[in-house]
Amino acid sequence: MSTESAPTPRVCSVADAVAVVGERHSLLIVRELLYGNRRFSEIADAVGLSRTLLSTRLRRLETAGVVERRRYSAHPPRDEYVLTEAGRALLPVLAALKEWGDTYCRDGIATTEFQHRCGAVLHTRADCAACGEEIRFEDLAVVGGTHPPQIRP
């Protein structure tokens, strides 16, 4: 019998976020809602999920406060899905993943773009909130929290 206890996992907001939207297809559902596809059949077709699996994912996203279901027809009863404030806050995450995928998975061939109302295509960039400088990996340090890691170059 071992007397060693399991290590205490790091308390981490990334882990918490992945628990909410990290299941396969969850961010694709959010993507479709950002694109304006609100009805179950539109989402199912665009993501390529079975009705059962899509229902499960939508319920989990609804429980987590990312998606809200709204009735748009009483007879027959029909619902549509919309992003909550928490769901809309995932736009920069999806934009960054899309840009990363264009660069590293599609040999730089861009797919659908996010475009601002001024006409400019959205490109993600992390800037320091205090000084405005672009954040580079070599300038980062991790502080605070429980068991803070050290970033190793």
Structural commentary:
With 153 residues, the chain is mainly alpha-helical. It has a domain at 13-89: Winged helix-like DNA-binding domain superfamily/Winged helix DNA-binding domain (Arc Repressor Mutant, subunit A, Orthogonal Bundle), CATH 1.10.10.10. The chain has helices spanning 13-21, 26-34, 40-47, 51-63, 85-88, 91-104; strands at 67-73, 78-83. It has a two-stranded antiparallel sheet with strand order 1-2. The radius of gyration is 19 Å and the shape is globular. The mean pLDDT is 88.
Q: Any chance you could write out the topology, listing elements then pairs?
A:
Layout: H1 13-21, H2 26-34, H3 40-47, H4 51-63, E1 67-73, E2 78-83, H5 85-88, H6 91-104
Antiparallel strand pairs: 1-2
Helix pairs in contact: 2-3
What keywords describe this structure?
single chain, 153 residues, mainly alpha, Arc Repressor Mutant, subunit A, two-stranded antiparallel ribbon, globular
